[in-house]
Amino acid sequence: MTIRKATVLGGGVMGSQIAALLVNAGLKVKILDIAIDEKDPNKISRKSYEMITDKKRPQLFDLNFAPNLTYGNFEEDLQGEDDADIYIEAVKEELDIKHSVWKQVKAVAKDNALFATNTSGIPIEYIAKVFNEEERQRFFGMHFFNPPRIMKLVEIIPLKETTEESVKAAQEFAEGKLGKGVVVANDVPGFVANRIGTQTMNDIMHRAEEQGMSISDTDALTGRAIGRPSTGTYGLSDLVGIDIAVTVTKGMQQVPGEDKFFKSTKTAEKLVESGALGRKTKQGFYKKEKNKILVFNPESNEYVEQSKPQYPVLAKFSKDLTANMDVIFNADDEAGLFMWETMRNNFYYSALNVPKAASDYKDIDRALVWGFNWKKGPFQLWDMMGFERVKNRIKEELGELPEWIENRTEGFYEDGESIERVASVSELIESEIWNREDSNLSVVNADQLLLKLQSGNNIISDDFAKDLIEAVDLLESEDFSSMVLYADGRNFSVGANLFMMKKAHEMKKVDELVGPAIDTLHESFNRMKYSLKPIVTAVQGKALGGGCELVLHSPFVVAASETYIGMVETGVGLLPSGGGLAEMSDRILSTNHKHDDKQQSMTEVLTNIGMAKVSTNAYEAKRYGYLRDTDSIILNVEKRVEAALNKARLESEMNYIPKPEAKYIALGRDFKALAEGMLDAQRLGNFISDHDYEITLKIAEVLSGGDVPRNTYVNQRYLQKLERERFLALLKQEKTYARISHMLETGKPLRN
């Protein structure tokens, strides 16, 4: 079944966000709600529409998508016959209201329409009471996690009568069209993610109270060290809403057999009673006061300054999660044992929920990774800690294990196995050409090259630039059809090596150390741009600074929709030096603009780079000029490499024509004068500092083509030379050094 049209029932916060997600995915969407005003029956749904299409903070990737969204009300729009392929209900969590809405929907829906409820707390079976036997075959829970645009997890909860075809259609829709990760859950309280995620948070809070452990100490032990969000347990509860955790806990306590796993926590209940629900009320377990984050003291009922945790075990942890699991297993101190019990209890409860909550233990891992932002799920962590020794210790400490664990003699995952349903890149590789510190070059699909950026934090290092040149040489000289460049991790690349810049300034060897690196960077990016065979870059997350410039020079790009691209060098007192300014000039000056608006386009580029603007999604990156109309955008980030390989294959088979090196007419001194006037006004108005003025003026000099008359012919290599000169000049300045140092120390820009 192909789903092209959707109706969202309920225009509240969640309904609006789901509607926006569907529109972003290319569907025609109608959002409906109750009519509370006879004179304005669409009042609620119109408000949702206006929030989704708000010009300043739109929920859509592109406001040009807005015509695909309409709004109405249940009374007027659920009449006659309706042609929606799927209805997603997100009305108030009251059974009578849901029943009323579904009675109206099923009376007008076409025979093969799918019915989905986004409930998180009401059993799916209860909501399904209004459906007949045939309608139940097309009804299921479809639980999106908040915010649905960002969170990957969607839980699909079928009834016993829901057909496999309906579940398959819903899963293919969520994964293929919306780019989500699907877990098929059973109709049990909390389904999978909330059930297990809330239980471990409750378990941690209960034991912390019993042992007299402070809130901040507990969070230090239950955050990054065990692969969970850096907020820790209490901080995450503040983010989600303490009232939600308490409500889920109390609900689970009413379920037979669950009361021993869900305990009342005094501090959480005390805060809920006082109305301190977390971030939504600006105070919960933590409270921000001026520039400090205070923590709640349950004994004094006051917010106090946090003290740094003094547990020796914390010094033993690193970014290596496997090593951390070994430290926890072998720990014998109070803090270490608390962490072991945290892992043990989570492993045990997760095992009990197979097949109770999910038929596949991998779905439990998927639910916690995709829905709670854990780095690894419970069974992945169990493997990391050592399957057999953990199994024996849990049995010794807690008694009988679930039968499926008792009968298991090997770990849960094979080496390199992932929870993703999309084939991993490693599965595509047929042979490896090299595996170096900063890059890996492999062969896939018999004649395609796959170049992986794998330097520390995916920085665009000097060694990677050299590897890129060598890879392009190999592509052009051997019998390969095309190449795809990609990087693993949440972010594609956040730029260049600032430590090297700082060191070069301190040694007073900017020209000697940085100059040649810029030359290599220019050569590598130029080789990629003018390659004789097609190259496609698959990009996701942040592509900043040098990462942005690499994307700019790629002949083709496949970008995940959640890609944030920008040249942010002004934040550290520099300007782009990898050819980014030259490339943006090339894109504007080599285009036949109507009404001669090249100067206006160049002014927008100057503003975006001068203000270090970063696109909020890939479609906005197109509007900024960082992506082109020939570049592709997909919602499923896991499919970006596969899509890039397909695009590269297509281009290689369609008479690929390499981009020729061009020359074009510069805007010259006219544009520089215009920019100077604009920047003077900003400086006089105290919108920018003197150093901001100097940096941005140097950017304008490069974009204008230097100190030349308008209509002077220039080319990209000449503009890159201007970039190099001005970059090195800025790097030698003390104010730039201060900005770089501040960024390295704090992670925040300094405006001096």
UniProtKB/TrEMBL annotation:
The keyword Oxidoreductase applies. Keywords: Fatty acid metabolism, Lipid degradation, Lipid metabolism, NAD, Oxidoreductase. One of its GO terms (biological process) is fatty acid beta-oxidation. It catalyses: a (3S)-3-hydroxyacyl-CoA + NAD(+) = a 3-oxoacyl-CoA + NADH + H(+). GO terms for molecular function: (3S)-3-hydroxyacyl-CoA dehydrogenase (NAD+) activity; enoyl-CoA hydratase activity; NAD+ binding. Its EC number is 4.2.1.17. SUPFAM superfamilies: 6-phosphogluconate dehydrogenase C-terminal domain-like (SSF48179), ClpP/crotonase (SSF52096), NAD(P)-binding Rossmann-fold domains (SSF51735). It comes from the Bacteria. This is enoyl-CoA hydratase. It comes from Jeotgalicoccus coquinae.
